[in-house]
Amino acid sequence: MRWNLIVLAACLATAGCVGNSMSERQDDNVLSSLRYDSVPCDQLLAQRDGLAQQYNLSTQVKPTFSNPAMGFGPFTPDMRSQSQRDIDRATGEIDAMNRSIDRRDCGKPDEQKKLALPG
User: Is the Cβ–Cβ distance between 73 and 21 less than 8 Å?
Assistant: First the structure.
């Protein structure tokens, strides 16, 4: 009976961390860049630069992930401060914006097309 209570307590403690785990929250910071493809290039560049300036980040920042003990990632509670969570969320947004900017060649001058006769 005592072992049942110990196992039950361990399961309840572990289940409480799953919805708030570090790995789940860090995965949520990686965003799809497709959501920014409908935003005009000049607005997207301004939005990215403003977000980077607001959180004092580089415009080329990439999301980072912690490396919990093997197998315990989903069970490691997220102990980051709210400001660090906001910075990590902004990092993911900036990275997604950069991928959209790179894919659409925003910010690069249009190359002049030269007309030439064959031969």
Answer: yes
Q: In the structure encoding, which two tokens stand for residue 94, read together?
A: 């900036």
pLDDT digits (tens, 9 = 90+) for 7-44: 656 655 555 555 566 666 777 778 889 999 999 999 99
Q: What is the pTM of this model?
A: 0.70
Give yes or no for a contact between 79 and 85, defined as CB atoms under 8 angstroms apart: no
Residues with Cβ within 8 Å of 33's Cβ and at least 6 positions away in sequence, in order, are 96, 97, 98, 99, 100, 103
Inter-residue contact 17 to 9 (CB < 8 Å) = no
Characterise 85 by phi-psi region: left (phi > 0), alpha (psi -120 to 50), beta (else).
alpha
